[in-house]
User: Which sequence fits this backbone?
């Protein structure tokens, strides 16, 4: 019986390892597809930005459009009013110029094709670059952006292939910190949260 248990345990470990590797490969493949889609459409997409509104979209002038390239990719995940994770078909792709994060493009998966939907988020792009500099991504990890819709709070995490988002270390961005900070309650935002902890803290502050 012990031998069978050890055998099954080892087999389960091998299976899990294979599943994690497949998951990582799928994630890497999808990110490459998104990167190529954005790269191919970026210059024409940026032309949608109205003249004289380049700075509002993160660029000093239109000449910088030619230097813009896709950088980090975040899979977007939502949280419903009850604290449950909701999958989306959306990704946020950072646009960089000479290594500096300038804007955020939202990409959606429509009929098997990645399509660029909107551009903006210059302050968010800068915040993400600062956050990434102190939280570098490791091999096999995926960048995820989690939005708690009810409280307009956004978190990011470098997610391991074998980790559920509910168990990930979530880093609050400024939108989340605004909701988590509460001077009257003598509480300030922590560096990281688990999902249930963050959701409960947002609820508690709302009803304080």
Assistant:
């Amino acid at each position: 019986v012990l031998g069978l248990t050890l055998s099954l345990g080892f087999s389960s470990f091998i299976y899990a390892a294979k599943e994690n590797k497949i998951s990582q490969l799928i994630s890497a493949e999808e990110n490459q597809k998104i990167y190529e889609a954005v790269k191919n459409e970026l210059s024409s997409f940026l032309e949608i930005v109205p003249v004289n509104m380049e700075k509002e979209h993160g660029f000093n002038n239109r000449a910088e459009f030619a230097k813009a390239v896709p950088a980090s990719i975040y899979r977007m995940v939502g949280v419903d009013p009850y604290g449950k994770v909701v999958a989306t078909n959306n990704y946020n792709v950072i646009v960089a110029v000479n290594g500096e994060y300038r804007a955020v493009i939202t990409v959606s998966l429509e009929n098997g094709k990645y399509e660029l939907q909107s551009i903006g988020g210059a302050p968010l792009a800068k915040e993400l670059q600062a956050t990434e500099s102190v939280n570098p991504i490791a091999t096999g990890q995926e960048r995820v952006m989690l939005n708690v819709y009810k409280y307009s709070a956004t978190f990011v995490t470098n997610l391991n292939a074998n980790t559920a988002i509910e168990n990930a270390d979530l880093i609050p961005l400024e939108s989340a910190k605004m909701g988590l900070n509460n001077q009257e309650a003598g509480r300030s935002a922590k560096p990281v949260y688990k999902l249930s902890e963050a959701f409960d803290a947002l609820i508690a502050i709302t009803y304080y």
